[in-house]
Each structure stands twice: as C-alpha cells, then as structure tokens.
Amino acid sequence: MKLALFDCDGTLVDSAALIHETMRRTFDKFGKPEPRFEDTKAIIGLSLDIAIARMQGRPHVEQQDIDMTAHYKSLFSIVRQDLDYKEPLFPGIREMIDAISGRDDLLIGAVTGKSRRGLKVVMETHGFDKHFIVARTADDCPSKPHPAMVTECCDETSMSAADTIVIGDAVYDMQMAKAAGAKAIGVAWGYASVDELIANGADAIAYHPNEILRHFC
C-alpha cells in the first residue's frame, strides 16, 4: 500500500497566469512595484503570506503582508472570472489520475499552498474530488517546506512516511518530502527547473505524467 500526495499548482494544474495576475493587482493596490512573472513563479507552493513577504525580500511576515494576503484572497475568484480562467490541467494529468485512482493498493491525496477553498474549486472543476481522499492546505498546516502537510496526511490514512510519495514541481515540495521522510518525485513541466528539483532532494524526475505511474509499481 502506498500514499501518493500531489502538489496542486504547477503539478496538476497550470495556474501561474491566474496567480500572477492576482498578485499583480494586489501589488498595484498597495502601491508596490509590479512583480515579474518569474518572481511569481518562484514563490508558487508557499503559503500566501510567506510568498508575498518573500517577493518583497523579507524573510518574515509583517502586518502589510497579512493585509496584502487578505486582498489577494478577495480578488482571486474575481480575476478567475475576469479572465475566464479555469486553472487547466497539464496534458496527461487526467489520464494519469484515472489510471491510478482505481487501484486498491494506492491512496491519493493533495498537499498544497492553496487555501482549502481554492483546492476544492480545482478538485470539483476537474472531477478529482472523488479520487483524493485526504488533503492538507495552507489553511491547515505551516507553509512548505515544513513537513506537517505530509505527516498529517500519513496520520489520517494510517500510512507511514516510508510508504508515501510526494509529487511536486517546487523545491519546497522536495524539501517537505525529505523533511517528512517520504520519497520525492519532481515534475519537469512545472515552475522550478529540473536542476533545482534534484539539488533539493528529488529522488526521481518525471518528464511526463505517465512516467509517474512506474513509481507506484
């Protein structure tokens, strides 16, 4: 029996454009210089308040970061509607999830810097809510790379970290997996480079979603 824990943004869905536009409007509202797209991609995966602080060169969250986080959250669904943007699945993701969801020897979960509400929208939009039996979000746990998202999912499913595989596109996913004692698979189609993923503990790299299947044999 194994537990597969998937990151969401950059791993299952391509949400960079939506996140960046929401971040751009937030920074503009607070009179901040407009962030570059590369700056936004670099923080995807972190909890939002920490991400906003990092984008401004601060290691710790201050009150303004909390205020900006609240504004970002109030904008997110508005921006999604404005852009008619549905956070599309990366090619091959649906087929991969369909292939593993019917297996009796595998449990599927999500570990994400999204809010629980944001994850729910993605899961329902793509019909994945029936496949993912456990989830931890930014509303539930400390930000990645803290291992709590993984360890709490393990506890809830009565699985050990040694039998858990974390699949993600960010260095924070790799660091989180290693901190929890789980296996880490980096995906090459997301927002971090393959070299960065390997340097931060990836045990393997998947260049297409169908390559993830071999790790569940």
TrEMBL record:
Q: Does the keyword Cell inner membrane apply?
A: no
- Tell me if Hydrolase is a UniProt keyword of this record: yes
Q: Which Pfam families match?
A: HAD_2 (PF13419)
Q: Where are the transmembrane segments?
A: none
Q: Which InterPro entries match?
A: HAD-like_hydrolase_sf, HAD-like_sf, HAD-SF_hydro_IA, HAD_2, HAD_sf, PGP-like_dom2
Keywords, A to Z, come to: Hydrolase
Name the domain of life. Answer: Bacteria
- Mind listing the GO molecular function terms for this protein? phosphoglycolate phosphatase activity
SUPFAM superfamilies per record: HAD-like
Coiled-coil region(s) at which residues? none
Tell me which Gene Ontology terms the entry assigns under biological process. DNA repair
Q: Which GO terms describe its cellular component?
A: cytosol
What is the protein named? Answer: HAD-IA family hydrolase
Query: What species does this protein belong to?
Result: Rhizobium changzhiense
